[in-house]
Amino acid sequence: MSTNEKINALNQKRKEVMLGGGEKAIQKQKDSGKLTARERIDLLVDKGSFNEYDLFVQHNAKDFGMADKVLNGDGVIIGTARIDNRPICVFAQDFTVVGGSLGYMHAMKIVKIQDLAIKMRVPCIGINDSGGARIQEGVDSLAGYGEIFYRNTQASGIIPQISVILGPCAGGAVYSPALTDYVFVVDNVSKMFITGPEVIKTVLGEEISQENLGGARVHSEITGNAHFFAHSEEECFLQIRKLLSFIPHNNKDKKTTRELEKPLDNIDINSIVPLDPTKPYDVRNVIKAISDNSDFIEVMEKFAQNIVIGFGRIGGKSVGFVANQALYLAGVLDVDSSDKAARFIRYCNAFDIPVVTLVDLPGYLPGVDQEHAGVIRHGAKVLYAYSEANVPKLTVILRKAYGGGYIAMSSRHLNADFVYAWPSAEIAVMGPQGAANIIFRKEIAEASKPDEMRKQKVEEYKERFANPYVAASKGYVDEVIVPDETREKLIHALSLCENKTIVKTDKKHGIPPF
Amino acid sequence: MEFHHFKNNIMSENRKLKIIVDDVEYESFSTPAFDKKQKWTKPNDKIINSIIPGTIIEVFVKKGDKVKEGDAMLIIEAMKMNNKINFFKDGIVDEVLVKSGDIVAKNQNLIILK
Questions:
Q1: What residues does A323 pair with on adjacent strands?
Q2: Element (H, E) at A465
Q3: Is residue A432 exposed (0-12), middle (13-18) or buried (19+ Cβ within 10 Å)?
Q4: CB contact burial A201-215 (16+ within 10 A = b; e otherwise)
Q5: How many of the other CB atoms lie within 10 Å of CB of A6?
Q6: Is B72 within the bounds of a domain?
Q7: Phi/psi of residue B21, nearest 5 degrees
Q8: In B, which residues are within 8 Å of A288 by CB distance?
Q9: In which element (H, E) is residue A230 found?
Q10: Predicted model pTM
Q11: Fewest beta carbons less than 10 Å away: which of A88, A165, A349, B19?
Q12: Chain A hits for B15, Cβ within 8 Å
C-alpha cells in the first residue's frame, strides 16, 4: 500500500464511522425535529475548531449477539474545540447509533473527555440524547454511568459543567446532568425522567405524555432541574455561548473581566421601585440599570420566579446577582426560591464570582404546604450559603427587608462586605402592620375605636421604624444612597474587594442543610 | 443578542395574586409551581388510604372485625414487592372497599374504620 492509498483508506474509514447510525437513522433523527450529534457540535463551537478523539473506538460486548455488531463511535462523539476562541471539552451522544444507548466503551469515551477537561481546567459540555443504558451490556453499562457520575462530582467547583438535553435522558442517565452546574433544555426536544410514561402506566395506571412528565417546560417551571430554556437547539447553543462569556472557565480563571461598558441610558433607576411596599415591579430592571451594557443572563428564569439569579457585569467584572422579585409571590423566600438562591450563591463562591444581592422581601411565605415541604431546612440553605461564601458580598436594600428575610439576604450579620440601602428601604423586625398589632395589642383592644387606634399605631410604627436609618444608626447599613449612585458605589466596592483576604481554617467541609 | 428574557413582562390579569405576610396584602403574580399547589386538608384517621399504587394480593379483615394496632390488614404488591400493611391503631372495621386482585391508585380508600 502506498502512502496515498493509506491516506485514502483513512479518509474512507473516517467517512464511514462519521455517518453514525447510517443515512436512514439520520433521516429519522431529522424527522423527529432534532439535529444530529455532529450538527450540534458544529453549531455550538467556533467554526472548524472541533478535534475529535476516539473516533474508532468499538464496544467489546459479547452477549446477545453483540459480538458481530459494529456500532460507529459506540454512539458518542467526544473532542475538544473552542468557543469564543477559548478551549472547551465536549461530548455528544449520537442517537442514530442504537438510540445513543450507553455501553461501557461509550461511557469510557465520555470519561476520557471529562478527565481531560478536569486536567486542562476547561469547561465540559455534554450533549445528551440517549435511550439510556445499553441493556445488552448489563452491569458494564451501569459501571459506565457510575464512572461518569464520579467525575461529575470530582469536577464540580473546579470547571463549569454544562449538560444539554437534546432528546431523551432517562433512568440513571438523568443523574449526570443533575450533578452538573447547568442543564439546558429545548422545548419539545428535551425529555428527562427516571421512569418513563410506559412504566408509570403499567405500574401505576397513570397516563401521561413524555412532554407532560418530563419535558422542557416541566423541568424549567416545576421541578427546577433545568436552568436554561430555549425554543430551538440553535437558541440553546447561543445561550451556552453567552453563559460561557460571563463565567470563569475554571475556579482560578481571572479572564472574565471585560472593558467597562455603561448601562443603556433608557432606564431611570430612581423611578423603578414604587414607594408603596405592596406594589410589584420587575427587579430585573434594577439589575439592567446597574449592569454594563444592561446585559444580564438570567439562570432558572421560569422556576421559583420570586427570586432572580443570574450573571451580569459591573465595571467590567462578572458578578452574580441574587434579587428578590416582587413581581412574583411578592418576592418571598419559600422552599423553591431558597433552594435556587442557595445553590447559585455556592456556585459563585466556588468560582470566585462576587455576589450582588438586591433586597426587597416581606419575609417567608406562610402556609401549611411550605411548612410541610420543609421551609425550615430549605430556608436554612440561604443562610448557610451566604455565611459560608467568602467571595465579595455586596448588598443593596431596595425596599422591604423584614425579619428573617432581612437576615438571610446577605445582611451585614452574615458578613456581607458592603451593605447599602436606598432611601426607600424599610429595615425592620417585621412589616409595620404586623409589628403594631403585636406591640400595641393592648392599646388597640382597649381603644374605643380599635380600627382607628390600629391605623394610628401602624402609622407611628412606620414613621419610626420603616426606614433605613435605624439600621444605619447601628452600622448595619454602611451607606444610605440615592438609587442612581448604586452602580458607582458597587464599582468602588468591587475594586476594594480585589484583594479580599480569606482566613482559611482546617475545616474539611461544612454540613449544609441538604 | 437578546433572548426571550425580558419579553414576558406583560403579566396577564388572571395570574394576579394577593400574598399576605404579617397582616399585609401584597400585589403580585403567581408562578407555575404555586398554581399546582394543593390546599391542605385535615387527615381523617378513620379512612385508610393506599400509600402507594399497586395490586391488592390479600385482605385479612372483613366488616365488623375488631382490630388492634399491629394486626395484619392486607398485602399490596407494589414495586415488585409484596408489602404487608398492618393497622396503625385499634378499631372496628366498618367497610372493606377492596378485594384481592384490585388495582389501587395512590391515596385510594382501602378500609374505613368505625
A1: A308, A358
A2: helix A450-465
A3: buried
A4: eebbeeeeebeebbb
A5: 10
A6: yes
A7: -130, 125
A8: 6
A9: strand A228-230
A10: 0.92
A11: A349
A12: none
Cell (9 digits) for A15:
467517512
User: Are residues A493 and A390 both part of a single domain?
Assistant: yes
- Cα angle B85, B88, B89 (rounded to 5 degrees) comes to 140
Three-state DSSP at B3 gives coil
Q: Going residue by residue through chain B (114 aa), what tens digit of pLDDT does each one get? A: 333 333 344 456 678 889 999 888 999 999 888 888 888 888 888 999 998 888 999 999 999 999 999 999 999 998 789 999 999 999 999 999 999 999 998 889 999 999
Residue at B42 is within a domain: no
Nearest to A342 by CA among A383, A281, A312, A296: A383
Domain count, chain B: 2
CB B31 within 8 A of CB A306: yes
Question: B28 and A301 in contact by Cβ < 8 A?
Answer: no
Task: Report the half-sphere exposure of A421 (CA within 13 A, side-chain side).
Answer: 28
Residues 6+ apart with CB under 8 A from A12: none
Q: What is the pLDDT of residues A214-271, one digit of tens each?
A: 999 999 999 999 999 999 999 999 999 999 999 999 999 888 778 888 998 878 999 9
Question: From CA A288, how far away is CA A278, in angstroms rounded?
Answer: 22
Q: How far apart are CA A161 and CA A158, in angstroms?
A: 9
A328 close to B31: Cβ distance less than 8 angstroms: yes
Q: Quick one: cell of A210?
A: 413524555
CA distances from A483 to A286, A358, A425, A431, A446 (A): 9, 12, 11, 22, 43
* Burial (0-12, 13-18, 19+ Cβ within 10 Å), A480: middle
Chain B positions contacting chain A at CB under 8 Å are 1, 3-6, 9, 11, 17, 19-34, 36-38, 40, 53, 78-79, 103, 105-106
> Closest to A430 (Cβ–Cβ): which among B22, B105, B106?
B22
Residue A135 sits in the same domain as residue A193: yes
Give the number of beta-carbon pairs within 8 Å between A and B.
111
Bridge partners (DSSP) listed for residue A299: A309
**Which domain, by its residues, includes B14?**
4-36
Asked if A329 lies within 8 A of B19 by C-beta distance, the reply is: yes
Q: How far apart are CA B85 and CA A508, in angstroms?
A: 44
